[in-house]
Amino acid sequence: DIAILKKVFAYIAQWKDRGWQVPPVSLGVSGRFLSNPHLLETLKVAEAPQYALSFSMQTPTARELASPTLLWNTDGLHELGIDIHLEGVGAQTTLGTLLTLKPCQLVLDTAVTRAAPEEDQARQTVGMAVALGTSIGAEMVAKGVEDKHHATLMAKLNCTLVQGPQIALPFPAEGYDGAAFAASKAVSRSG
77-135, pLDDT tens digit by residue? Predict the structure, then answer.
């Protein structure tokens, strides 16, 4: 895990040295990773850049949330300027999860996002999730957006960001030249 983090930190430094404005890099992690009692010290030793990194995790289990180390680390990550993004927000997300983890970003379950153009119930679910996210100060991300019409609908439903193959395709860090980031900003402005 630390080897991957160091590699990510090196990429961030390289991109910033080129003068690029780089959004926070999101790394998928597990509740087990966040429960590591040495996590905060490891990040400090590795010189994690502030506000350049976020940890993205699936909705944790009740057992994971009961870990005092996870709760300690969550508070410490916020102090280090590392955000937590909660993926798959939908049926399995509890109010306790949101209040415990204090995520800065909630990512809608893809099934909810994809159903929104056709189903009233899905649109209502998005609206409730947005309201919940707003109440805890979290952005709402619609994952799985398929076209410009879909992106426009999700914006009308007050989703802060959209993700999907029509917005931007994934690309390797080694090939990042700044153009992909510039292109994704242009798409978000035109929608």
Answer: 989 999 888 887 765 566 777 777 888 899 888 888 999 999 999 999 899 889 988 99
Report yes or no: 130 and 140 within 8 Å, Cβ to Cβ. Answer: yes
Asked whether the beta carbons of 164 and 144 are under 8 A apart, the reply is yes
Separation between Cα atoms, residue 94 and residue 75, nearest integer Å: 19
Q: What pLDDT, in 10s, does the model give residues 161-185?
A: 998 877 777 777 776 666 555 554 4
Are the CB atoms for 65 and 100 separated by under 8 Å?
Answer: yes
